[in-house]
Amino acid sequence: xxxxxxxxxxxxxxxxxxxxxxxxxxxxxxxxxxxxxxxxxxxxxxxxxxxxxxxxxxxxxxxxxxxxxxxxxxxxxxxxxxxxxxxxxxxxxxxxxxxxxxxxxxxxxxxxxxxxxxxxxxxxxxxxxxxxxxxxxxxxxxxxxxxxxxxxxxxxxxxxxxxxxxxxxxxxxxxxxxxxxxxxxxxxxxxxxxxxxxxxxxxxxxxxxxxxxxxxxxxxxxxxxxxxxxxx
Length: 232
Description:
CATH architecture of the largest domain: 3-Layer(aba) Sandwich
Number of strands: 12
Strand content: 15-25%
Structural class: alpha/beta
CATH topology of the largest domain: Rossmann fold
CATH superfamily of the largest domain: Response regulator
Number of domains: 2
Largest sheet: 5 strands, parallel
């Protein structure tokens, strides 16, 4: 039986390892990040069935991280962990897209019950969450192996190329803001990584040049849009 994949983002290293160990002993696979920027980058790199986010973190706090996650995935369950128990803090968490809120300190049994309840209510399972092959016009994108192919053409993508393309595919025919791609792939959105993104977009356009039905449009001042005219 395939394990549920959980993203745990907690800046307290000791607590993070304790929680990860507890959940691993419950039969879950846990990926641990120590700040919000790293957490969002990891979220884009592999499928998760649940996200557990600390609220107070460096680089990107849990509220901002939840909003970023919701910008690319409306359905994955999000559980907040926080030392704050004020009503307004909980309201802010739920408004950011949280499904549950657990106040520190908490018992391992309570955490396990909350996790299992969220997974029961979720429609995502390890076998359903990730379709490995994505049709893009006349191409097939194997996002697990980072391979883009079409008839006699095959290209092994770099990790960053593949992660950018995964986001564009998820929002096919929709505009994806630049900052969403930058934060998801690089964990930051400054000028220099922005220039790197433009280089990678140019490379992806070149790979798709064999099929005029596939276009990656640059929406000036906003972001990018992957459009296709052929759907398999």
